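Service request form, structural biology core

Requester: graduate student, group of Dr. S.
Request type: structure prediction, single chain
Budget code: on file
Notes: please return the result as structure tokens.

Sequence provided:
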Amino acid sequence: MATTAATRKIASPAQITRAAKSNIAFSLLCLPAERREDMFSFYAYCRVVDDIADNPDATREEKLVELNGWRDVLNGVKEPVTEVEIATIHVRDKYDIPNEVFLELIEGMLMDLDLVRYETWDQLKQYCYRVASVVGIACVTIFGYRNRKCLDYSVNLGYSLQIVNIMRDIHEDFVNDNRIYIPQEDMRAAGYTEDDIANKRYNDAFYRLMNQQYERALYYFEETERGIPPEDRTNMLSGRTMSRIYFGILQKMKKDNFRIYDKRYALTQAEKLLLLGRAFAARWIIG
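Core staff response, request fulfilled:
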């Protein structure tokens, strides 16, 4: 969702979340009402800072001013003024979410301003942690975990979701922002080049590269599923629904032999409603 600075200042967290029409927003429907509204507030924060970093009409300096403004709000240097700022601080304090979680997301946005290539998976993993895993940490806190192992679960969930996003958006990221998130060492090992991306080439190197990324994503999905403490399986239904949506997208890409240059992979509304129905059924049966 692209928004202007003016729009961000007047939109409410719920308006921002619903307008995004994202998989995350969809998965929140299985939360109890109060926690769902609080998740709207947190998601709105994530959406706003992401829009700042991706705003094509703003200069790097303008983006820095806005992101640093958010940092000042989070650090108490500046009073929260907008509805989203006020709601973000309220949710942070209500659930005692570490301020570092919010600041790490800003650090991830700053990486997007300057870093358009990643040499290794370890380097990309740091980016994924900042833009996805810290989101998961805040989410499971709002969901209400009992066992702190849920924090590890949320970190791995962030890695798996971000890898799927990177796989399906390779050409879009390259054309729009000159970004290649797939590690350069992986591309060299597969023999796939930037020229191949620019020209949307399907070749043996492409399939080697995609299968390698698929295996990495699959590993983190499996770690995610193994990492849910039994006592938290009900509380984590929203996160598990999100995991299943993205796992479904990953499997669609694999089954279709990764035709990522021809289509944008997503679950249909019916497929997502089925997953949501299962989540509601599980909550009713268990709870």
